[in-house]
Amino acid sequence: MFPIPSNVKYNAYLKEVADLCNIKKNLSTHVARHTFATTVILGNGCTIESLAAMMAHKSIRTTQIYGKINDAKVSIDMKIVKDKFKK
Question: For the chain, where are the alpha helices, taking DSSP H only?
Fold first, then answer.
């Protein structure tokens, strides 16, 4: 989407996008990777193993940093288990 000559320049582009969109959070490549991992991938039910492959992590331990479990996710997972037992 953006020409990326360096990480610093990419972060500058993200800051510009944030300003244009009136986003108050300090956007960076780190924030983008973290949001992708937690909200987009894990938040939509993908496994930690799949995420590790997407993030090109050599160790699953590195990926587990992104594996914060929240109450909403636990509720969704428990509903899936409950529905399976009903059948």
Answer: 7-20, 29-35, 48-54, 60-63, 71-86
The CA distance from 45 to 50, in Å, is 10
The tens digit of pLDDT for each residue in 7-51 reads: 888 888 889 999 999 999 888 888 888 888 888 888 888 888 999
Number of alpha carbons in the 13 Å side-chain half-sphere of residue 36: 13
Q: How far apart are CA 75 and CA 67, in angstroms?
A: 16
pLDDT digits (tens, 9 = 90+) for 64-87: 888 766 667 778 888 999 999 987
